[in-house]
Amino acid sequence: MAPATDTSTDWNKGEHDGFVNIAPNQDLHIKVVGPNRDENVPVAIIIAGLGDDGIQSYAAVFREMAPFIRTYSYSRLGLGLSSRFPRSAPEEPTNPKPEASLDRSALAMATEGLKLLEAASITPPYILVAHSYGGLIAREMLSLLPKDAVHGMLFIDANQERTHYERPFDQQAFGAIIAGLDYYKIIGVVDDHALTSEEVQSLLKGGVRHPDSDTQPDGHAAAAEEAAYDSSGKELATKRQFEHRALGDWPLSVIMANNIEIHKRVWAAAKERGNGTEEQWVKINRLQADTERYEEEHQREQMLLTTGKSRFVKTEKSAHNVQLTEPDLIAREVKWVLDMIKEKRSS
Fold first, then answer.
1. Integer Cα distance of 206 and 202 in angstroms
2. Distance of CA 31 to the CA centre of its chain
3. Which of 131, 206, 237, 307 could be bridged to 161 by S-S, CB 3.0 to 4.6 A?
4. What is the pTM of this model?
């Protein structure tokens, strides 16, 4: 259970790291850095990926963004220090992973995030900064908010509605293939991360989601989010946001990670070690082929959300967790979105 909420905090002034209550027994951990809020000045809202607590892994991003924009991030229910969410049955030896009784669809998590912003009196306009599965959540937020509440968006190697069926991800096969490998070293996170030693220890202590999430502190919450992933993509598709240009003429940036080339190193190390069954390698080879075929198309398609200015950035250095290895790139793109907002307003 998270510590009691401090209702006296002014989340629009000063830097804070605390809790906001959104419902009985539901306190969300939230952190804010950056300049005090001025009226009608956009603030950045970070929406983390599946199973990510959204606080510890963004420490370097906070440092990069604090000088020029007020930046918020938070942990969804069941993740990090936020309140655990109720399960339909108690955890027992015969039932170690009872089903979550709380809806973990992207739409439900978007509603949860907006309840947090309302409870903390963090009003629009927003720049939504979304990583991975957070892309679906951010776009559900966009659908729920009034027109022009969102003044810009940044997608960081984000998922969209076609990802779940055109690039299906088999967690069990992936876990078997990378078993025994120093996965994060192979993909460059260990050597190239931008965190301090203290931040690394906090991240490890906090239980950042590993591909074998069943062994992690946030494993139940991550599993519940993952279970709703496919249906969330299908639900988002019904809104036809690309067709309707849902962001209007506000600016948008897309960062695409170098997953294709970097993961070739992972597959080579796994084969050398003799990992995986023939069936599991069929699934991984399909994943690689689907990624090569669809990934850039999926990433670029997100620019259809806007009729305004957009840009597309490919990083050669980073795999999926860009926030750990290139926080400066994320800050640069948020700064570009902010500059385009100012330009639009002055025209």
1. 6
2. 15
3. 237
4. 0.90
| Helices 278-301 and 259-273: angle between axes, nearest 10 degrees | 170
138/134 Cα distance (integer angstroms): 6
Query: For 226-255, how does the pLDDT look when each residue is reduced to its tens digit (9 = 90+)?
Result: 889 999 999 999 999 999 999 999 999 999
Distances (CA, A) of 343 to 19, 251, 268, 307, 312: 35, 10, 47, 15, 19
Long-range contacts of 165-168 (CB under 8 A, 24+ apart): 165/230, 165/233, 166/290, 166/294, 166/298, 167/287, 167/290, 167/291, 167/294, 167/295, 167/298, 168/286, 168/287, 168/290
Tokens of 80: 């990090």
Query: Please, what's the b/e burial string for 182-212 (b: 16 or more CB within 10 A of its CB; e: otherwise)?
Result: ebbebbbbeeebbbeeebeebbeebbbbbeb
Compute the distance between CA of residue 198 and CA of residue 122 in angstroms, rounded to an integer: 29
Q: Which of 338, 340, 346 is nearest to 44 (CA)?
A: 338
Question: What is the pairing mode between strands 150-156 and 252-256?
Answer: parallel
Other C-beta atoms closer than 10 Å to the C-beta of 7 total 9
Tokens (6 digits) for 257: 């990670």
* Structure tokens given for 221: 């919450």
d(CA 153, CA 241): 14
In DSSP terms, 20 is beta-bridged to 28
Q: Going along 75-207, which residue ranges are E strands?
A: 126-131, 150-156
Q: Which of 320, 180, 160 is nearest to 237 (CA)?
A: 160
In this structure, are strands 71-74 and 43-47 parallel, antiparallel, or unpaired? parallel
Residue pointed to by tokens 């005090």:
36
CA distances from 317 to 60, 256, 260 (A): 16, 11, 12
DSSP 39: T
Q: What percent of the chain has pLDDT over 70?
A: 89
Q: Where are the strands (E) in the chain, listed by range?
A: 16-23, 26-33, 43-47, 71-74, 126-131, 150-156, 252-256, 310-314
Could you tell me the strand order of the sheet in which 310-314 lies?
16-23, 26-33, 71-74, 43-47, 126-131, 150-156, 252-256, 310-314
